[in-house]
Design a protein that fits this description.
By secondary structure, the chain is an alpha+beta fold. It has helices spanning 27-36, 48-102, 107-117, 132-147, 152-161, 167-170, 181-185, 190-196, and strands at residues 17-19, 22-24, 125-127, 198-199, 205-215, 221-236, 250-261. The chain has two domains: 47-97 and 203-272, no CATH class; 124-199, no CATH class.
Length: 272
């Protein structure tokens, strides 16, 4: 069926073109109307200024999203680096426990040696409790260190020359960690030791010890062999939004050490 003349599409050369919301007049007519101060025919269409503001807002949102994702990525990388450092600490703690076991120390003594060797992974010190003045001294030391603002090369040279000792470790007198190490090792049971020295995450560190007995010339098991000490810990994750990368709040890490075990030759180990 042929359309009538009124239904046919009008020409677009001089009168404008069809859009989704109606007719839009040609650019020449719009410019002439703008020169005379008249309102354009197609009202409600975005101007160049509106389009520029919209694009600026979009760029701001995209920048915020990108900065947030990059920051989250760097925090995740820092957390992974701390996990590797914590694992090295557990190897050191396992070596301390192996040295205690190989000279005939009992399980309680081995546990105390392992805990002292794993203090960098133990979290906040709960006992002895630091007063506000002690904490202010520690914070002042950090502020003084940062206020120097040295060049990177000078800071690196100073780090190589300095002895890595903090106020909490040895600078607070009877409140220092190192002051109570001997008392802690001499504690007879867990409640007494906990009142001398304690940390928030010590309960997450668990050592186990075992032996691989050697054989003599006739192939029979000997009393000596190789001592194995394994230390495991559920290391807590502190990075913000770590659940985006890992489905738990802690990661299981561990360290181990092996030493020749000769103490069964002269000590009767009754597993106590």
């Amino acid at each position: 069926m042929r359309r009538s003349v009124s239904e046919r599409r009008p020409a677009t050369s001089g009168r404008g073109r069809r859009a989704a919301g109606g007719w839009i007049e040609p650019a020449r007519a719009r410019r002439s109307r703008a020169t005379r101060g008249e309102t354009p025919v197609a009202e409600g269409l975005p101007s160049r200024a509106d389009d520029h503001r919209a694009r600026s807002g979009q760029s701001l949102i995209e920048t915020c999203l990108a900065v947030g994702l990059i920051g989250l990525l760097f925090m995740g990388m820092l957390q992974v680096a701390l996990l590797f450092t914590a694992q090295d600490v557990l190897y050191q703690a396992a070596a301390a426990g192996a040295r205690a076991k190989t000279v005939g120390m009992n399980r309680w003594m081995v546990l105390k040696c392992v805990r002292l060797g794993s203090i960098p992974n133990a979290g906040k010190m709960l006992e002895p409790q630091l007063t506000k003045e002690d904490q202010d001294r520690i914070h002042k030391e950090l502020r003084d260190m940062m206020s120097l603002n040295p060049r990177p090369g000078d800071l690196w040279d100073e780090a190589l020359r300095a002895r890595p000792v903090s106020l909490q470790y040895s600078g607070l007198g009877e409140k220092s960690e190192s002051f109570w190490f001997g008392f802690y090792l001499g504690a007879e049971n867990q409640p007494r030791a906990q009142n001398i020295l304690d940390y928030a995450d010590w309960d997450t560190i668990r050592p186990t010890a075992g032996h691989t007995l050697a054989t003599d010339a006739d192939g029979r098991p000997a009393d000596y062999g190789v001592l194995h000490v394994h230390v495991r810990q559920g290391y807590p994750l502190w990075a913000p939004m770590h659940r985006a990368f890992y489905a738990a709040d802690s990661v299981g890490i561990g360290g181990e050490a092996e030493l020749e075990s000769h103490y069964p030759l002269y000590v009767d180990d009754r597993l106590w």
